[in-house]
Amino acid sequence: MTYAKNLLFTTDEIGLASLKNINFPTRVFPLEQLETETFNFAKQIAKYQKEFSFFTKTMLTIMNKAYIKSCLDLEDECGKVAYDPKKFTIKELDDFIKGLHEKYP
Question: What share of the chain is helix, strand, coil (3-state, %, to 5)?
Fold first, then answer.
């Protein structure tokens, strides 16, 4: 989380080596190897019970959609305040932020 915040606040560009150091990509291949490596990965997954794979994929998809929607809702709320022509007091901003922490635990 600290690394992600640093990137968001500084907008520093990072390279593939840096992403690998934080375990960001699971696999990286040259484009010409992508299809072969994707099939190899699918074969590896297919070794497990089909039902388990289906349930895992479904759960991750549902969780991801809910998380993304929550993030977009949070972004909308913050954007409305950030671009509001009204100047907020520190107390008002503090209360707003406290409310965000309660709404988005």
Answer: 75, 0, 25
